[in-house]
Amino acid sequence: MAEAARAELPADKAERYSALRTEIAAVIAGEPNVTARYATAASLLAQAFPDRFFWTGFYVVDPDKQNELVVGPYQGTLGCLRIPFGKGVCGAAAAKRETILVPDVHAFPGHIACDSRSNSEIVTPVLDGSGALAAVLDVDSTAFDAFDAVDKAGLEAICGDLLTID
Ligand code: SME
User: Fold this and answer.
1) How far apart are CA 23 and CA 117, in angstroms?
2) What pTM was computed for the model?
3) CB neighbourhood size of 64 (10 A)
4) Residue minimizing CA distance to atom 3 of ligand 1
5) How far is CA 25 from the centre of its chain?
6) Fold of domain 2-161
7) Ligand 1: which of 89, 102, 106 to mutate, judged by most atoms within 8 Å of the beta carbon?
8) In the predicted model, is pLDDT for residue 2 greater than 60?
């Protein structure tokens, strides 16, 4: 049975994202280490939506191979280690530098099935302070059509803060 989301978070989804954004920003403020920032966001997001977020984490741009993502901090079952730009949902979001919402991953050409229990997915780019792509945030659900415009707006706002808050 899925664990209940933390009681102190608002029940309304948009309000929950807003509270999470504030919480994540407060924890990462003053922290220069990027891995610590990604790990904080992955943990708090996964705990905030335990019934919908089956896999929550980051694929970062490999500094040694500019056209490949390598797995970063995540919460969930074993993820694939590397994803070339343009492959799967993560690689497509990295190549386009825009959020991709996939209601049925089995219908997405080239979808990479790290865990066959995932049925829908949302991937949001993370840009650094100069606007360069640094990573993507990938959230998978075991439910079909689990993500909507509220998730997109909430995750984009949080990703927008991750590398830009001092
Ligand atoms: N499904 C993703 C790969 C990453 S995992 O699901 C954790 C994709 O197609 O990019």
Assistant:
1) 30
2) 0.95
3) 7
4) 112
5) 16
6) Beta-Lactamase (3.30.450)
7) 89
8) no
